[in-house]
Amino acid sequence: MSGSALIVVAYALLAVFAVVFVIRTISIARLPVHLRWELAPVPHEKGKGHYGGSYFEEYEWWTKPREKSYVSEMAYMFKEIVFLKGVWEHNRRLWWWSFPFHFGLYLLIVAAPVLALRMALGAGGSASGIDAQLGTTVSALAGAGFGLGAVGALGLLANRLFDVRLKPFTTPMSLFNLVLLLAVFASGGLAMGAAGEFPAAASGAVTALLTANMSPILPGALVAHLLCTLLFLAYLPFSQMMHFVAKYFTYHQVRWDDKPLAVGGRVEKEVLELLGQKVTWSGAHLKADGKKNWVDIATEGKGQ
Amino acid sequence: MSKTIRIEDIGKNGDEVLCPVGPEDLVPLPPPYDKLDEQPVWKEIKAETKERLVCNLDGVIGLSIPKPTDAAEEQEYIDKFIAGLKKLLESNNNWTFLQPLTLSLEYCVKCQTCNDACPVYTASGRKDIYRPTYRSEVWRRLVNKYVKPGGKLFGRLTHGDIDLNWTTLTRLYELCYRCTMCRRCAQACPIGVDNGLITHELRKLFSQELGWAPKELHDKGTVLQLEVGSSTGMNDVVVKDNLEFIDEDMAEMTGIQVETPWDKEGADVLLIHNAGEILAWPENPGAFAIILNAAGIEWTLSSEALGYDGVNYGLFYDDFQLARIALKHAAAAKELKVKKIVMGECGHQHKAMMTISDRILTGEMNMPRESCMTLLEEIVFSGKIEFDPSKNDFPVTLHDPCNIVRNLGIVEPQRRILRYLCPQFREMEPHGVDNYCCGGGSGFAVMSPNNFADWRISVGGRVKFKQILDAFADQPGPEVKKYICAPCSNCKGQFRDILQYYNALDRSGITYGGLVELIVNAMVDVKEPFIEWEMH
After folding, report:
1. Whole-angstrom distance, CA of residue A129 vs CA of residue B375
2. Looking at CA atoms only, how far is residue B99 from chain A in angstroms?
3. Average of pLDDT values for B333-341?
4. Distance from CA of A17 to the nearest CA of B (A)
5. DSSP assignment, residue B387?
6. Cβ pair A251, A220 in contact under 8 A
7. How many whole angstroms separate alpha carbon A58 and alpha carbon B72?
8. Residues 101-160 of A with CB under 8 A from B
9. Which residue of A has its CA nearest to B363?
10. Residue pLDDT, tens place only, B244-272
C-alpha cells in the first residue's frame, strides 16, 4: 500500500471509530430515565456499602442526610476493571485467560501516553537519560501488552471453541472479535521484532499519521500492525467490545442509581413526559388503543 | 454426561421434552434427606393433561398453555410475539426499563460467569436450559433475527441461529417461569448484564402483548386485587372481621389487650400487610399490633380497597398492573393523610412500593415509605418494651428475602434485632446480599399447578433448604426445636411447603415464622410462649 493510500485509509478508519463511538455512547446516554432497579452492594453508601447496606437501613431515611463515598465507589470499580474481580470470584477458569487479555490491552493503552510524552519531549534520537528511560518503558509496556494480550486471546479462543460451557454460546462474531484482537497483538509483537528500536519506529508511525506524511518508509510489519489496529478500532464501536462503555451505564445508571425521586425535580419532569406517551401494547387487559397514554391506562379499569 | 442443549434447540422437536428434569438429576441434600428412594415422588402428569396442555420444556407444567387448535392460531401468537419484541425496545411502550434492557441486550459477552450464581441451575445438576444465560440468549437471537434490520439475512452469522415457531414460543414462556428473578446472576456479571431483568421483560411481553400470564398472578392475583381489594379475595368487611378475630386470639394467647386501629386519619404510620398473612399466618399481623401498641406508635390500617393488602404481583410480570396497584396503595395513604407508609413483612411489597414505583408516584403521591425492619429496630432498641432474650434461647437462623436485602440493601436492622433477642442466632452461608433465594420468588410461592410445586420445592428451593440444614448442622435432630426467621410472606409460603415436603419439623425440628413473632416471644409482658412449634 502506498503511503498516501495508507494515510487515507487510516484517517477513514479513525473517523469511523470516532463517529460511531460517539453516536453509540450518546444513544445509550439518551435512553429515557427508567424505573429504579438498583442492586446491592451499592459501594457509594458510606459506611454500609462494604456489606451491601443502603440508606433504607436508616429509620425515617428521608429525614437523614445522604452520605456517599465516591472513594469506595472508585475502589470498587478499580478492582473490577483492572483485576476483573467478578470473573476471579465467579469464573476462575476463564479469569486465567481473560485477565492477561484485558491487562495486555491496558498496558498498551498506558504505553500510548508514555510514547506521546517521549515524542513531546523531543526525544527519539538520543539513547540516554529520560529518552532512554521512556523508550525502555514503551518497549516494556508494549512487549508485555502484546504478549499477554496474545496469550489471553489464544486462551479465550480455545475456551470459546472447546469449553462445553461456552461453546453453545459461541457465534461467528464472537470468534471474529477474538481473531481480530489476536491479529492486533500478534502483529504488534512481530512489528516490535522487526523494528529493531520499537519506540522510534512507533514514533515515526505516529508522526507520519499526524503530519499526513508517509514519505518515511515504515517497516512492513509495522504497517501491518497499524492496519490491524485501525481496523480493530473502526470495528470496535459496532461490536459487543463496547462493553467497557456499557459498563459505566450498567453500574452507575442502573445498579447504583438509588437516588430517591425529588418531587419537582428533573427526573419527575422527565417521567411526567414519558407517562404521557401513547401505548400500543395489545394485551386485552390494558385496553390500549394507541390513543391512551400510560396515565390513562394505569388509572382506569380493574385490570382484567 | 447429558447431551449439550444448544440455543437453537429450543425451537426443535416440539413434541418432545427438551430437557427432562427429575429428582435423580438434582444435587444431593445433606442427611437425612440424601437418599433418593426416600425423596418425595414428583406428581405424575396424566396423559389427558399432556394431551391438552403444552409440556415440552422440562416435563414440568407451570403455566398450563392449551395446545393450539390449528396453525393459524399458532401464527397469530407468533406474530404477536414479534410485535411484542419490537415494543419492548420502544420508548413509548417500554420506557420503564428500556435503558437497562438495551444494555443487557447489546453487551453480554457470553462468558457464563453468572451461571454458578444461579441456585436453580446448580441445584438441577447444571441443566443447560436453566443457565441464566440460556433464555436471555434465546431472546437476544430472536431480537437480532426478527427485529433488527437484515436480521434474517445476517442474524445467524452475527448472533447465531434460531427459529421462532410455536415450540420456541411455548418453551420460552415456560422457561420465563423457571427463574425467580433473584438477580444473583446480575450481581456476578462483570459487565452488569441482568438476566433477571430479561426474564422480567419477557414475562411482560407475554402478558402485555399476548395476554399470557399465570392465572395465580393475573386472574387470581392483580385482577382480583383490583376488583375486590385484595388478592386473597377479602373485601374491606371481611378483612376487618378477620383482624377482629385475630385481635381476640392474640389477647387470649398473650393476656395483652390487642386492638388493631382502622382508618385513623393523620396517623404517624399506615401499616400495610401482605393480606396473605391475615389468612395464613394471623400471628404475624397480631404480633405487629402487640408491638406497635406496646411502643405507643400512632398507627393504623386502611380499609380502603387495596390499602389493606400490600401485594403487588404486577412487579413480577406486568408494568401496568404494577402501576395500577401502586397508585391505589399510595392513594389509600394519601386519603388518610398519614405521615408514612410502613411495609409489613413482605419482600416484593417492599421492592414494589419503595423503589420500583418511586418514579411513577409523582407529586403528592410520593409519600415517605419505610421498611418495617427499621421501624421494628427503632422500637426494639428504644427501651419502650422490656425484653427477655432467654425466652428465645433456641437456634434461630435468618433468611434474607431477595427483594428486601439484595434489591433494597436492608441488611443489618433485622440482624441487630436477632443478635439482641436470640442468643443462638446463627447466619446461613452465604447470607446478606449474597443470600440464596428461597425458590418461591417472583410469584412462584403461590403457583402450584400440575407438578410445578415439585419443581419449585425440589429444584427452586433446594439450595436454600441445604443452607438451612447446614446452619443447624450442630444440632440436627428433632429434639432441638429450630426457627427460620423469614420476614417475607412469599418466602414463608415457600418454607412452609419445603418443610412439609421433607417433613422437616418431625425429622429435624425445624419450623419457620417472621421476625415480629420472635420479638413478641421475647417480650417480658407476654407470659406464655408466643411461638408454637407446629407446622402452620
Report:
1. 67
2. 6
3. 97
4. 18
5. B
6. no
7. 57
8. none
9. A263
10. 999 999 999 999 999 999 999 999 999 99
Rounded Cα–Cα distance for residues B304 and A219 (Å): 81
CB contact under 8 A, B358 and A261: yes
What is the chain A residue with the closest CA to B208? A283
Interacting residues of B353 by C-beta distance below 8 A, sequence separation 6+: B272, B310, B312, B326, B329, B341, B343, B369
From B29's Cα to the closest Cα of chain A, the distance in A is 23
Alpha helices for B107-235 (secondary structure H): 119-123, 132-146, 151-159, 166-176, 184-188, 195-205, 224-228
Minimal Cβ distance to A298: which of B128, B137, B327: B327
- How are strands ordered across the β-sheet holding B396-398? B425-426, B396-398, B482-485, B510-513
Residue from B195, B231, B341, B408 whose CB has the most chain A CBs within 10 Å, to mutate: B408
Whether the CA torsion A214, A218, A222, A224 is positive or negative: it is: positive
Q: Treating both helix axes as pointing N-terminal to C-terminal, what angle do B71-88 and B166-176 enclose, rounded to 10 degrees? A: 50
Say what angle helices B195-205 and B71-88 make with each other, to 10 degrees. Answer: 130
Q: From chain B, pick out residues whose CB is under 8 angstroms from the CB of A87.
A: 111, 113, 190
Q: What is the mean pLDDT of chain A?
A: 93
Q: Determine the distance in angstroms separating the CA of A66 from the nearest CA of chain B, rounded to an integer.
A: 15
CB contact under 8 A, B362 and A40: no
Show which of residues 51-80 on chain A sit within 8 Å of chain B, judged by CB atoms.
Answer: 51-62, 80
Q: Are B200 and B97 in contact (CB under 8 A)?
A: yes
ipTM value for the complex:
0.96
Q: Do B406 and A39 touch (CB under 8 A)?
A: yes
Is the CB of B2 inside 8 Å of chain A's CB atoms? no
- Alpha-carbon span B135 to B141, nearest angstrom: 10
**B415-426 mean pLDDT:** 98
Which of A55, A255, A303 faces B223 most closely, judged by CB atoms?
A303
Give the integer Cα–Cα distance in Å for B238 and B261: 15
CA separation, residue B118 to residues A192, B11, B462 (Å):
45, 24, 12
Strands B510-513 and B299-300: unpaired
Give CA–CA dist B121/B115, Å, rounded.
7
Is residue B319 scored above 70 in pLDDT? yes
Asked whether the predicted pLDDT for residue A218 surpasses 80, the reply is no
Is 60 exceeded by the pLDDT of residue B157? yes
CA A93 – CA B329 distance, rounded (Å): 48
Phi, psi of B269 (to 5 degrees): -130, 125
- CB-based contact, A14 to chain B, within 8 Å: no
With cut-offs at 50, 70 and 90, classify the pLDDT of residue A303. low
Residue keyed to cell 420468588: B441
